Amino acid sequence: MPRGLSKKMLPWLFLAPMLLMITLAWIAPLVLTVYLGFTDLKINNFLAFIQDFFTDKVKLTLDNFRKIFYAEDPYVSETFKVTVFYVVSVLSVNAVYALILSIAIAYFVKNEILSMILRVTWLLPRITPGIIYALMWIWFIDPRYGLLNDMLRLMGAPEDWLPDSWLLRKPYSQVLMVMINGYVGASFGMIVYTAAIKSIPPDLINAALVDGASEFQVARRIIIPLLKWPILFVTAWQTLSLLSSYEYILMVWGAGSGQGYGIARSAGVMVWSLYSYAKAFAEYLYGYASALSLILVVIGLVLIILYFRIFGFKRLMEPSKVEV
Amino acid sequence: MMRVGIRKRKTRALLRRIAVIAVVLLIAVIPAIPIWLMYGWIISQSFSGRVILGILPSKLTIENWRFLWSPITMGEKEYPNIWPITLNTLFLALGVAGLVVLVSSLSGYALSRMDFKGRTGMMQFIIALHAFPSVILLIALFVILNKLGLYGKGFMTLVGIILIKAGLEIPMATWIIKGFFDSIPWDLEWAALVDGCSRWRAWRSIILPLVLPGIGAVSIFSFLSGWSEFLLVFTYVAQEEYYTLPVMIYHMIGEFIHIDWGMLAALGLFYAIPTIIFFSVSQKVLLKIYVGGVKG
Amino acid sequence: MVVLRGEILVRVLLDNISKFFGKVKAVSDLNLEIKDGEFVAFLGPSGCGKTTTLLMIAGIYKPSKGRILFDDEDVTDLPPKDRNVGMVFQSYALYPHMTVYDNIAFPLKLKKVPKQEIDRKVKEVAKLLQIDELLDRKPAQLSGGQRQRVALGRALVKEPDVLLLDEPLSNLDAKLRILMRAEIKRLQRELRITTIYVTHDQVEAMSMADRIAVMNKGRLQQYADPQTLYNKPANLFVAGFIGSPPMNLIEGSITERNGSYYFETHSFKYALPRDIGSLVASKTSEVILGVRPEDIRVIIDGRGSSDSAIIGTVYVVEPLGRDLLINVKINGVLIKILAPTDIRLESGQKIMFTINRAKLHIFDKKTGEAII
User: Fold this and answer.
1) In total, how many domains does chain C have?
2) How does pLDDT run across B240-264, given as a tens digit for each residue?
3) Hey, where are the domains in chain B?
């Protein structure tokens, strides 16, 4: 039955280009990351390796993981601490601060135009190409040309509180890292939450007002409980992307210092994924870097499976849906 | 209930109103001031010599934009001309957009309109990919580029990057286009068939015009994402003449910081032009897509 | 009923209020007084401004112009929280994340009422509304009628000064609606809370309210008790809106011949009593004559015929159960007549009928205002 067969084949014909591209960009590197994590690929055996991989000429080893887990690389534990700090603090900006922000913008501000202006403002960091966003921060925090120190002085911060360099002096640099990523991340939460708040039936809020709730009580007793799923979604999604995000750190510290992203280490902003990146592309230890990445891959996969369990397919699709 | 005097009730209401305004100011307005200042600075700095207080231009000049007509030099070193670099960026962005639209319209249509075994699984797979942080894969992709012989080959490296970038964008784009197909009622297609269209004709004259806005949105979105792509080019392109704008700007920030803020601002603004245009034109659609799926 | 008493009866006064949304005038220059303990219905088609008015009384909307007074206190600038009103929404607006108990307790919790008292009051209200079995459920697990009772309970539990009901029955099925109609009326009588009831259903308004404010296009058309509204509609809109089947409205002119006055259309001529005729003629000649279907009597076999009888042709007969609704055509003008079911009529048959002159309505065609 050629006709029946072609009918069965047709969807896969349509899907083939996508599957091919996905294989190239996702599946192959995913598998390869696993493989590379167990090799000692570096710059000096690289060319031979490219010829030989997946043959038995390549020696598989557990050395990389020994280095990571048995503290043979002394820097791993610090990277781990920085990463936890980074994820937890940016996450609280993204999930919690963004929630208050969205309620303020989408509910407290009744004027449509004002609300729109604020929403666009908070979106700007996300829309702006990363390198420009980085450039603006580099200027803003510059102790001589930038405005940050002037603003802090204006607010009455004593002179000796102000660092000579926001970029390099711990813990200022770490605060800066949270701020830079927080502004971008806050808009993600804001988009999801705002859509959710807008989808709450106005009658529900009116009813609460008539029942005697103040604006704050409406926010606390009606809006936030109804946003349960969007809040969980934002938290889950952002955890995953924060674990692996380092682009802004790389750009701001790399370009801003004029000395490359290696400076992130002494500035205390070397997060796990950037560390892996640096191991690969600054020290050319591809095998070890892959092992570091592999840990993130595993965490990522576990989290994704977990999310499918918690949310179910439907809720992952419509993060802003309020269940009324 | 005890009745509270009207005046007291009015005072209380006023106090609560003030508290709400205070919260809005504290949470949404004051923290937004740095954002406004930054954008104010980049605009005024690009046309000005020294800026006063960060955002007030002093003496108007187009000197900062000199990179548009003359080469940029730093001591002995001469940076590549801006225009070929812009062309590289444009090539990358257009390549990504074209490939993404082509591939994801096909797959989006199949997922929305065709019934086959494994359809739900495929959709779950796409969402899972979408959630998965792709930047982790940079090292493995580097090895793959090498294996394919696309590393360090100048122009061909850019092609390789287009393939990778498109591949990374495709799951989300497929999802968006599927959504647009989903929103077209089957009835419409059936009506066309009943009216005597062939299936192909129905697709061309009924379905395609209706998903065109979706395809437009996806092309803009993937164009912008190609235009802003930094990491892949930064990591994989070694020769300066194949840099794209963000990578060149990255290197120039390192060199010109403290020396020529004006030029950096102008360069940044120049690079941001397509983003500004596209965003102001199609802000609503883009926002919708941002909600549908964002990395960040 | 011990807890829910209505000792504090509140009088509501709408003093020339208007509400604009951008350029749209939702309500214009509305003046209305609702006496303490009174049950008033706002009646009108959708978009007439009745819900907007209700939301202004609740404090959700602020009037663009004018004042709202509760017992001579200007509450215009007060937020809902400080007005002590209770409200039932058309969608019921039950909080989906709270149980029935918590829904009803919510207004009391906000008032910081002690816990035991909340418990006592919630249970009492639940009993009153016969929902005491449902207290642990979530709104999603309730039927429409049950949700409606919960919403009512939530509005009543705080002992509101004013009770506002926004189309509370429109989402219920017909049978339940009639039941709840009686129940809400009984509750209001018992509790004596000043109540404002918004509806587009004239039967609801007529059967429940002490007085009805008929609204159209943001303006008050007439404010009167149901009987007056029915018998003395102030204008064409009220005449056409109140009553089912609706009043016959026939365009024509007033003519005078030899001291007799006639209502004349292109198809028939009808002699008017002299007093009415002269009164109308002194004001205008272009009029619309209104007569309710039940105020027209069919003459069978010429019995009881008079010189003012009109002849027409039966067009369609609609049996309504208790009555017959006869559609009669007189040269293109269609008139509806309500008649007892014992008449046998067929389409095309010629019949005569007379109009009860005491129940005649005549409206000025230009202004739409009633002349008599």
Assistant:
1) 2
2) 889 999 999 999 888 888 778 888 9
3) 6-61, 76-292
